[in-house]
Design a protein that fits this description.
The complex is a heterodimer of chains A (95) and B (545). Chain A has 95 residues and is mostly helical. Chain A has one domain. In chain A, strands 1-2 form a two-stranded antiparallel ribbon. In chain A, helix 1 packs antiparallel against helix 3. Chain A starts with a helix and ends in a 12-residue tail after the last helix. Chain B folds into two domains: 389 residues, Sodium/glucose cotransporter, CATH 1.20.1730; 146 residues, no CATH class. Helix content of chain B is 74%, strand content 1%. The two termini of chain B are 35 Å apart. The chains are: A mainly alpha (95), B mainly alpha (545). The interface between A and B is large, with 55 and 56 residues.
Chain lengths: 95, 545
């Protein structure tokens, strides 16, 4: 159980770090692949408006998913810690 | 024809700012009645809910630069500076994910509280000194900006403006402590957002945009005219390395900013801290998108009217004086003042925490709580007084762009915090050696000290992007390699992490007393990261175009 929790914590941290970096630095993708610098959205060039949208709603969406999943993970962690025998002097975690 | 900001009726401006200060003092006074312990003073009693905290986080992060500096840079550099600004939005979410909730779990007041538990006293002194230097640079920049804003608004000499603005500001922040700073910051964020976004609707309508009803995203119909006037406006201009260099300097730097971390720590719970980040992203996104539209409109204004904005940092104010009634223009200036105040509040609280709690915790670990709180008030007041005094004749090395200082923080403090939280092998001596040597190297290779040995040139060097790419990657690699070496050398045994140091890591990740030596340990992945960092180090050393 604890190995599974440990792996899950590391996975959540890596995945959400990468997603946040992608949302905040999406302009780099347009530099790396100039072919994407074509077309418009709502009248703006895509390489302008998409980084702005991802830097606002994209970051918010990733934060929402991060909050839901990490808070659920905290519940699992607390269940695990509370399930340990009293001899291990486990304290209830601060949620 | 040049245009400048000037209110037709200065008393309207004075009235707006006076009303704002009355509100700030009232909030500060009410907050002072709730402050009875050091937990209240430094962390608002760990009681702030997600919406208030999200607003407070956004206000603390969005400084006076959001209203003045960044718009000037968009006017000069156009779209690449928009990209630079967009990535600030991930700073507090990353901070929360990578260490904020872990340190909130241990009820830290500042990141240095963790450094003291994890690495001991000498390491704490090193990190606290770097953080205080950067907080002073930050607060000084805001104080100078505030003085200039008052000078502009009221037409008084700069020195008088500094005294009035400085004392009025430090007064309400000192009275309120973290409760006051947080509630005031939440209110200031509302003022800032309204002042940034709403008047722009009226300006866009006059400029002929049908998207005036939602300024942050609905100005697409102005793009064809903009491209006709400034065909290069949307060009990305720089190569991939320029954009990559934003990550080490401007993403990894701010995540170690103590005043941002302290906002996360004030949350009523770990879960509440994460929800606050969701609100933060929404609120900050709205404000920042307002900034981008002002930058766009400033360029549009100069291109289509033939007028010249000589003082580019006054673009927002000039647009409002030109297109909107005096009352609105004065309110926008009030928004700019609120932006400066919210950041100074955070900076001074961080200085108070670093001096009054972390340094004092080393000098006098057994001090009573009530005395600790008094020292906190004293540290806050002294930090504010120092910022005011230095603002009269600012030392040149301290008024270097705060963006440059982010690279310094990423070099000196970020590796210590992140590796300390996620890696049990992180060594105390390795921290000290790396932080001091790489920190001074960053200063040395910047154009601000010895221009002849500068890494990079022009803007990338001045902002610390090229230097940061070299020293931040070096700092991570050095810390990892030295930690592995020192932990295996008997002569450095005293600096190796103890069992108690390692237990701190498991505990702050929520494992309680269930300790496992193999967790957050090992050297394979850290060595892979070190190799990756060394590759970035050499990439950063290549000539910059």
């Amino acid at each position: 159980m604890k190995e599974k929790l440990y792996k899950k914590e590391i996975t959540l941290t890596i995945v959400f770090s990468i997603l946040l970096l992608l949302m905040g630095h999406s302009a780099s993708i347009f530099v790396l692949f100039p072919v994407l610098q074509q077309g418009t959205l709502w009248g703006f060039p895509t390489q302008y408006i998409i980084p702005i949208l991802l830097g606002w709603f994209g970051v918010a969406a990733v934060c929402l998913a991060m909050t839901i999943m990490c808070n659920k993970f905290d519940d699992e962690m607390e269940d695990y810690v509370n399930s340990l025998p009293p001899s291990s002097e486990t304290k209830k975690t601060d949620k | 024809m040049p245009t400048e900001y000037a209110l037709s009726n200065v008393w309207i401006g004075i009235g707006i700012v006076a009303i704002l200060f009355v509100i700030f003092y009232a909030v500060g006074y009410m907050a002072s009645r709730k402050t009875t312990s050091d937990e209240d003073f430094y962390a608002a009693g760990f009681s702030i809910g997600p919406v208030t905290n999200g607003l407070g986080m956004a206000a603390t992060w969005a400084s006076l630069a959001t209203f003045l500096g960044v718009i000037a840079l968009i006017l000069k550099l156009q779209v690449p500076f928009v990209y630079l600004w967009i990535q600030w939005a991930i700073s507090i979410p990353l901070l929360t994910l990578l260490y904020g909730t872990s340190l909130r779990r241990m009820k830290a007041f500042t990141p240095a509280t963790f450094i003291r538990q994890r690495y001991g006293k000498p390491s704490t002194v090193v990190i606290v000194c770097w953080m205080i230097l950067i907080m002073i640079m930050y607060a000084l920049g805001q104080m100078i900006g505030l003085g200039r804003a008052f000078e502009l608004l009221f037409g008084v000499p700069y020195n008088t403006a500094i005294i009035v603005a400085g004392i009025a500001t430090v007064g309400f922040i000192t009275i309120g402590g973290m409760y006051g700073a947080t509630y005031n910051a939440a209110f200031q964020m509302v003022v800032m957002t309204i002042a940034m976004v709403v008047p722009m609707g009226a300006i866009m309508k006059i400029m002929g945009s049908s998207g005036w009803w939602f300024p942050p995203l609905a100005y697409g119909d102005m793009v064809p005219e903009m491209l006709k006037q400034i065909p290069t406006f949307f060009d990305m201009k720089y190569d991939f390395r320029w954009y990559f260099a934003l990550i080490p300097a401007f993403t990894l730097g701010p995540i170690a900013l103590p005043h941002l971390a302290m906002k996360v720590f004030t949350s009523s719970s770990v879960k509440s801290a994460r929800w606050a980040v969701v609100w933060f992203a929404l609120f900050l996104g709205l404000l920042f998108s307002g900034t981008y539209v002002v930058g766009f409109a400033g360029n549009f204004f100069t291109a289509t009217t033939g007028r010249i904005i000589e003082k580019a940092d006054q673009t927002l104010l000039i647009l409002n004086v030109f297109y909107n009634p005096t009352l609105v223009a004065a309110f926008v200036m009030g928004g700019a003042v609120a932006a400066g105040l919210s950041t100074i509040g955070g900076n001074l609280m961080a200085i108070a925490g670093l001096v009054g709690s972390d340094l004092l915790g080393i000098i006098a670990p057994n001090m009573e709580t009530s005395k600790k709180m008094k020292w906190g008030y004293a540290a806050l007041l002294m930090g504010g007084a120092a910022a005011i005094l230095m603002a009269f004749r600012p030392p040149k090395f301290l008024v270097t762009s705060i963006l440059w200082a982010f690279g310094l923080l990423a070099t000196t403090a970020t590796p210590a915090i992140l590796l300390g939280v996620w890696w049990k092998e992180a060594n105390k001596l390795a921290l000290i050696v790396t932080s001091i040597s790489c920190g001074f190297l960053f200063i040395l290779i910047s154009p601000h000290v010895i221009p002849s040995i500068c890494v990079g040139k022009g803007l990338v060097a001045a902002l610390g992007m090229s230097g940061g790419m070299v020293t931040i990657s070096l700092s991570f690699a050095m810390f990892i390699v030295l930690s592995i070496l020192f932990n295996r050398m008997s002569m450095f045994k005293a600096f190796a992490p103890t069992l108690e140091d390692k237990k701190v890591i498991d505990r702050i990740h929520g494992w309680g007393t269930d300790y496992d030596e193999s967790r957050y340990n090992g050297i394979t992945w850290p060595l892979i990261i070190a190799a990756f960092c060394i590759a970035i180090f050499f990439w950063g050393l290549q000539p910059w175009s």
